């Protein structure tokens, strides 16, 4: 089997409204039409979370979260994607903890409650979401600086007023919504910030299997 080694780091976050940030990331391979055996993890962690960071004088959050994964590959179908979830933290070190209830008629997002409710679908004590996003790993080997423009769901006018006065934002209910296009078209969203990722892509034995990438035109 051919092999690919993905090295790098989540470098920084820009243009986010929260004072403190921490970032969760995940790497996914394959899709619902793909056989799981086509991508086999040989080493490294496919998910992780950074420490909490506060901005410098230029309002840049230096996240510096390492990424290091090694795969054996039998097909280029299901090429890896990196997705991020950015969360906010107050200056005193506490997360913005709120109680959320599922929005009626939607399985995609949860909203801060605006009225007392007896619904059993509750999501207690979650941190304040600052944004979601993903990027496909470049196919050609080499060094890359990638940008992920993040977004977050928005609710009704009343939901947004509640977010301003009480705190908390609507959040997605499943990670798949972040990197799959199937359901996301139903979401109403707003842009939030930008995550910068640096990657080094190393290949082994792709040419032996008849797979040649254009080094000058990386595919995303």
Structural features:
220 residues; mainly beta; Immunoglobulin-like; five-stranded antiparallel beta sheet; four-stranded antiparallel beta sheet; 2 helices; 6% helix; globular
Detailed description of the structure:
By secondary structure, this protein is mainly β. It has a single domain (2-209), classed as C2 domain (Immunoglobulin-like, Sandwich). It contains two helices and 13 strands, in the order βββββββββββαβαβ. The protein has a five-stranded antiparallel β-sheet with strand order 3-5-1-13-11, with no helix packed on it. A four-stranded antiparallel β-sheet has the order 4-2-6-10, with no helix packed on it. The longest helix has 9 residues, at 157-165. The two termini are 22 Å apart. Residues 96-107 and 110-126 have low confidence and may be disordered. Its main location: cytoplasm. It holds the Pfam family B9-C2. This is B9 domain-containing protein 2.
Short description:
Pfam families: B9-C2. Helices cover 6% and strands 48% of the residues. The chain is built from 2 helices and 13 strands, in the order E-E-E-E-E-E-E-E-E-E-E-H-E-H-E.
């Amino acid at each position: 089997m051919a092999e690919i080694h993905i090295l790098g780091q989540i470098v920084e976050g820009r243009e986010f409204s929260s004072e403190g940030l921490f970032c969760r990331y995940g790497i996914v391979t394959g899709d619902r039409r793909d056989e799981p055996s086509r991508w086999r993890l040989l080493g490294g962690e496919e998910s992780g979370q950074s420490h909490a960071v506060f901005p410098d004088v230029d309002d840049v959050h230096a996240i510096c979260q390492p990424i290091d994964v090694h795969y054996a590959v039998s097909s280029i179908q299901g090429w890896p994607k990196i997705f991020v979830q950015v969360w906010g933290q107050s200056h005193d070190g506490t997360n913005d903890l709120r109680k959320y209830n599922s929005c009626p008629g939607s399985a995609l997002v949860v909203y801060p409650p605006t009225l007392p409710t007896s619904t059993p679908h509750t999501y207690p004590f979650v941190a304040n979401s600052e944004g979601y996003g993903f990027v496909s790993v470049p196919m050609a080997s080499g060094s890359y600086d990638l940008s992920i423009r993040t977004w977050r769901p928005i609710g009704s006018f009343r939901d947004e007023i509640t977010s301003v006065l009480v705190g908390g934002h609507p959040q997605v209910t499943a990670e798949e919504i972040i990197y799959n296009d199937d359901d996301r078209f139903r979401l109403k969203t707003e842009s939030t910030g930008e995550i910068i990722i640096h990657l080094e892509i190393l290949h082994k034995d792709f040419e032996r299997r008849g797979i040649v990438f254009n080094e000058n035109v990386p595919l995303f």
